[in-house]
Structures are given as structure tokens and as C-alpha cells.
Amino acid sequence: MEHPLSKYICQIYSEILGKQHEFVPLHEPVFTDKEHEYLKDCINTTFVSSVGKYVDLFEKKIAEYCGIENSVVVVNGTCAINLAIKALNLPESSEIILPAITFVGTASAIVQSGCIPNFVDIENETFGIDPKKLDEYLSEIVAFTPEGTINKNTKNKISGIIPVHIFGYQCKIDEILIIAKKYKLKVIEDSAEAMGSKNNDIHLGLKGDLGIISFNGNKIITSGNGGALISKNNDLLKKAKHLSTTAKLNHPWKYQHDEIGFNYRLSNLSSAVGCAQIEKLSFFLEKKQKLALFLQNKFKNFKGVKFHHPKTTSSPNNWLNAILLEDNFIKDLDLILDDCNKNNIMARPIWEPLHKLKPYKSFPKSNIKEAVLLSKRLINIPSSANLL
Ligand SMILES: Cc1ncc(COP(=O)(O)O)c(C=O)c1O
To answer: Which ligand 1 atom lies nearest to the CA of residue 166?
Structure first.
């Protein structure tokens, strides 16, 4: 072990696990008997595909948890973004604003929808879109025309914005919504990482036009793969559900489709796992809060490192814990990550800023500084609900 920080991180997990630890994953799912019971039920009843009681039940449970009437479950969070873009009728060849720091799926969903990503910078409290820089950027590039909001530089329409709630913490969504209104942009909240996160009793993802959640195996609850659309707007959810089920019209036996749809509905098998998981969400939230507080305390007095815990979210889900290297440690990022991984601690950097990746280099962007700085100083450390 070469670096004092990696040594300390390994020590922490040895202490948590009470022994010389084996491999410690970044975030592993926790299952109990219910998943087995519900899956067996699917197989015994032969309902394993996109129709079945668990699909409807999972939607009901998500909606209940979020305090809304409906939700729509789909095969993953990336497809949920794709579907949200289509449900909102954001036109092909229009630009959609997104932060330079997010999972690549946010950007690929935009491109796969026939739209154009336009990357903006983040602020360094929540790591979400910086509202001030966003407003400045839009004021420079936007022209209002009878056809709508146009990017003066590219001549494309700008139709929407996708703010991201990174690690389950609320980004500066209220300010972003005001700006979206000013420039007449639809808002899809990427709450992929935020299941269970609430601010002042409002679940993340419900302030914009549509929100999306991911139930990938590394999220706070999982359905294997899986995702959901949430919103207070039932008409939009209805439209999304119709599109997700091949746009098939209801009929006892006829195959009639009234538009080009998607085959994105979540399976009964996956939904069964999701139902069992969401029943335990409150328990996971408690466990994860305990772990976050423990880790926060551990890093309080470690020089050169800050524990990431923005105050923007009254009840965060504490999905993935992160530490930030201060100036003197930044040069050691790769060494620390190497050390941790060689010693069976699955530590990870944050994503590479998307505007720097080869497939996304040529898309429009603002002046991006903070996103690049963040990618040089953030380390995610193991955060599974079963650790403490
Ligand atoms: C911020 C963000 N957006 C979108 C996604 C896409 O979700 P999925 O992996 O379910 O496609 C993820 C999750 O992996 C994510 O973290």
C-alpha cells in the first residue's frame, strides 16, 4: 500500500467488516426470501414477460412511495430517458441541454432519440448543472423565433434540458426550472440514482415535466435491469406507457398500433424482484444513512480529503458515498484508485466528462471547467446497504 489515503480507506472497511476483508464491491444488491417467493410465483403462473400482476404492482408501489398517482416501468433508466423525450414530443434534430458530468446513458438516450446533446458545466456543491452558468450560456446562444427557442450558433432548435441528481442528491432544480421556463424548455429530471431521496417531502424527479429512475443492479433497489418514469402529469405518463408497449391499441384480439412505439415494458420477472425490493426500501435507507454518517465521521479529521454531503436534500438516499481530494492529493488520484482496487476495495472515479469522450466531442457545449476539475478529485467508495 503506497498512499496514506488508500491505506486509510482499506482500514475503514476492515473495521466495518471486522476482519481482513475480501472483495468489497462498490454497491451490491441485498436480497431476502421475498424475491425468491415472487419469482417462483411468476414461473408457477407462467407470467414471465411484459404482462403480469407484478408489473402493475411495481408501478403502484413506486407511485405510492413517490406520492403520485401513477408510474410507468420500463426495461432500464436509459430507455426511460429515451421514452420521456418521445412522450414530450421533443423534436428530432433539436438540442437537449445536459450536464457534462453524468452517466453516459443520459447522453446516448438523447442521441438515440434523434436529438443533439448540448453539454453545460456543473457547480461544485451538488455536482448538478450550474444554474448561473446555464443562464449565462443560454442568454448568449438563444434566439426566440416563431418556430421556438433556437441556438443562434448551430441554428438548431433547443427543446429541453435534463438536470441530473448525482448520487441521489438534489441538484439546484428550483433555479434550473425558472431558467427552463424563461427559455421555454421542457425538463426531464434524471433521478436514476435518486430512488428514495426526498427534499421537504417531495420525491426527487417530480418538479419537472417527467422524471426517470433506474433499478439497475447497482442502485439502492434493483429489479435486475429496470427503470421508471414518474410525474404528477398523468396524461404524460399515459402517453409514455402507450409508447412503451409498442403503441398497441386496446382490443381483445386485434393487433392495431397507432404510432411507432417501443418494446420497453419491464417484465413480470424483473417487476417481481422490484416489488420485493421496494418493500425493503425504508430499511435500506436507514442502513445507508447509518453508513454515510459513519464514513462522514471517519473522514472528518483526515487531512486533504472532504466527504461529499451537500445540504440541498433533506432526506437523501445516500446511494453512493464520495470523497473529494483537496489540492495536494489531486495528483495522486490514479495511485489511490490503483491501491484500493489491488487491495480488493472497489473504489471508482466519477465518470469522464462526456464532452471529452470521442463519440461526444463534436456536439455543442458551453465553457466547461468544474466538470473537468471534479473528474480529477472524486472517489466513490463502497456503499452497499449491508455493510453496517
Ligand atoms: C445518472 C444516470 N442516468 C441514467 C442512468 C441509466 O440507467 P440504466 O443503467 O438503468 O439504463 C444511470 C444509471 O446507471 C445513471 O446513473
So the answer is: 1
Tell me which of 3.90.1150.10, 3.40.640.10, 3.30.870.10, 3.40.50.720 is the CATH number of domain 33-278.
3.40.640.10
Give the cell for residue 40: 417462483
CB of 190 closer than 6 angstroms to any ligand 1 atom:
yes
Ligand 1 center–CA 11 separation, angstroms: 31
Fold topology of 4-25+281-381: Aspartate Aminotransferase, domain 1 (3.90.1150)
> Residue 144: helix, strand or coil by DSSP?
strand
Residue 1: what pLDDT? 62
Identify the band that residue 18 occupies on the pLDDT scale cut at 50, 70 and 90: confident
Asked whether residue 19 carries a pLDDT value surpassing 90, the answer given is no
**Pairwise CA distance, residues 39 & 34, whole Å:** 8
Closest to 388 in 3D by CA, of 78, 30, 87 = 30
Work out the angle at residue 281's Cα, subtended by the Cα atoms of residues 208 and 297, and round it to the nearest 5 degrees: 90
pLDDT above 80 (res 246): yes
Distance 190 CA to ligand 1 centre (A): 8
122 - beta bridge partners?
Answer: 129
Dihedral angle at the C-alpha atoms of 2, 320, 311, 297, nearest 10 degrees? -50
Could you tell me the three cell numbers for 32? Answer: 431476502
Q: Which three cell numbers stand for residue 152?
A: 443562434
For residue 208 and ligand 1, the question of a CB distance below 6 A is answered with: no
Question: Quick one: CA torsion of 304, 307, 311, 314, rounded to 10 degrees?
Answer: -170
Mean pLDDT score across all residues of the chain: 97
Residues 6 or more apart in contact with residue 210 via CB below 8 angstroms: 84, 87, 88, 187, 188, 189, 229, 230, 231, 233, 236, 237, 240
- Convert 70-133 into a string of H (helix), E (strand) and C (coil): CEEEECCHHHHHHHHHHHCCCCCCCEEEEECCCCHHHHHHHHHCCCEEEEECECCCCCCECHHH
Tell whether ligand 1 has an atom less than 6 A from the beta carbon of residue 222: no
> Domain residue spans in the chain?
4-25+281-381, 33-278
Q: Which residues of 117-153 are buried (b: 16+ CB within 10 A; e: fewer)?
A: bbbbbbbbebbbbbbebbbebbeebbeeeeeebbbee
Confirm or reject: Cβ of 102 under 6 Å from ligand 1. Answer: yes
Distance CA 130, CA 171 (A): 9
**Torsion (CA) 179, 184, 190, 196 in degrees, nearest 10:** 70
